[in-house]
Amino acid sequence: MAVAVNYVLITVFTAVWAMVPAYIPNNAAVLFAGERPLDRGRSWRGERLLGDGKTVRGTAGGFLAGFVAAHLLNGLAPYYAPGFTFAASISLPLGALAGDVAASFVKRRTGRERGEAWPGVDQYDFVLGAWVLALVAAPDWFLSVFTPPVIAAVLVVTPALHLTTNFLAYKLDLKNEPW
Ligand code: CTP
Ligand code: MG
Fold this sequence. Notes:
The chain is mainly alpha-helical. Helices cover 69% and strands 2% of the residues. Residues 115, 177 line the site of magnesium ion (MG).
């Protein structure tokens, strides 16, 4: 029993640790958000390409925050936690932001306004983006860290973390919607 609990705790710890550089960017983007939209205000078929919710400063600041976080974690890392290679420290934050941007693109194509909740997609778009880019940019690193149990732990823990941080950001008046 104790061994099983230990195993679950270490797996969840590894999952959250390895995902921090992917968790930070979209939250940091809320803090860094600027005025200039990533799509430069352009529309396609009568709808904004991405919308005013994806800004140049938010994206750049979010990336830097995730990148720095990966290197700070490398400095703190206990022996049982995975370290981040340079490729991982770039692909996780960049992929997380790209996943969120891609979701905005699809939202605008499917009649969803800026800020509208899209349950399921909002909680996983950045996870998928981070994983795909990390798998491409750092395949050996990705496969050694994200074993099937760690992937399962990420899929279970992420929505809870996402809902909690966004609700807190909303309560702190940092974000317009609680999701
Ligand atoms: N943000 C940003 N740049 C990003 C992502 C987010 O500047 N790449 C900022 C924006 O101010 C955005 C806020 O963080 O409004 C919240 O992010 P998010 O919920 O992802 O954007 P939404 O406003 O909901 O827009 P969308 O409907 O396009 O997702
Ligand atoms: Mg939103």
